[in-house]
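Input (structure):
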């Protein structure tokens, strides 16, 4: 799983770099955006996922837009996992989710309070891997991919000209087959974020 995740990240970052280099320069409308890291927990359906229904994890997220765009494009990657035992069965499961979509944020809607709320949604690509072992028997593993959807929102609080802290809640849903059964790998992601805003003509820490 670690090797797969490293290759996945390398491919995603390489593709993003190639897309960025292919974009023509636009002095009149520079690219604006945010890059953020998050730590949080994914809450899955207890009936389907017990004893690994609560999975801690981390995420990487980038949003970007032209200066005059009313909304921003969003690309996010979240990895969560957990292991546990129930009735003599040892379970190890992980969920990798790639989110693609759009987002709208509002700059300082309440005067003198440096908070920026944002909402968005789009499509998700899931990769789920699981391993089960009962007693001293050989382990059984399975993995699968699925397409789904996500929607969510959060707030950002400016702590300096370009650095912000925030929180986010994202709901996502899909159906995936593991061990001849169907599961929902989405659930609800709740995370705390640390972000950096990049803007060549900086005026405010939050922009969309």
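Output (sequence):
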């Amino acid at each position: 799983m670690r090797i797969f995740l490293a290759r996945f990240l390398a491919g995603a970052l390489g593709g993003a770099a190639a897309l960025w280099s292919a974009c023509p320069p636009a002095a009149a409308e520079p690219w604006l955006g945010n890059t953020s890291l998050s730590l949080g927990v994914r809450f899955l359906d207890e009936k389907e996922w017990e004893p690994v229904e609560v999975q801690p994890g981390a995420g990487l997220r980038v949003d970007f837009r032209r200066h005059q765009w009313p909304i921003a494009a969003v690309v996010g990657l979240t990895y969560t996992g957990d292991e546990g035992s129930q009735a003599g069965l040892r379970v190890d499961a992980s969920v990798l989710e790639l989110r693609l979509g759009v987002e709208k944020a509002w700059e300082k809607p309440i005067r003198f309070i440096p908070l920026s709320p944002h909402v968005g949604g789009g499509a998700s690509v899931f990769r789920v891997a699981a391993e089960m072992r009962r007693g001293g028997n050989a382990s059984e593993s399975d993995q699968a991919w699925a397409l789904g959807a996500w929607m969510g929102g959060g707030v950002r609080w400016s702590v300096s000209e370009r650095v912000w802290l925030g929180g986010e809640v994202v709901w996502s849903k899909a159906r995936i087959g593991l061990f001849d059964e169907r599961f929902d790998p989405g659930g609800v992601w709740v995370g705390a974020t640390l972000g950096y805003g990049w803007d060549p003509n900086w005026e405010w820490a939050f922009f969309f």
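Notes: The first strand starts at residue 31 and ends at 43. Strands lie at 31-43, 54-66, 72-86, 89-105, 115-134, 140-158, 163-173, 176-178, 181-183, 187-198.
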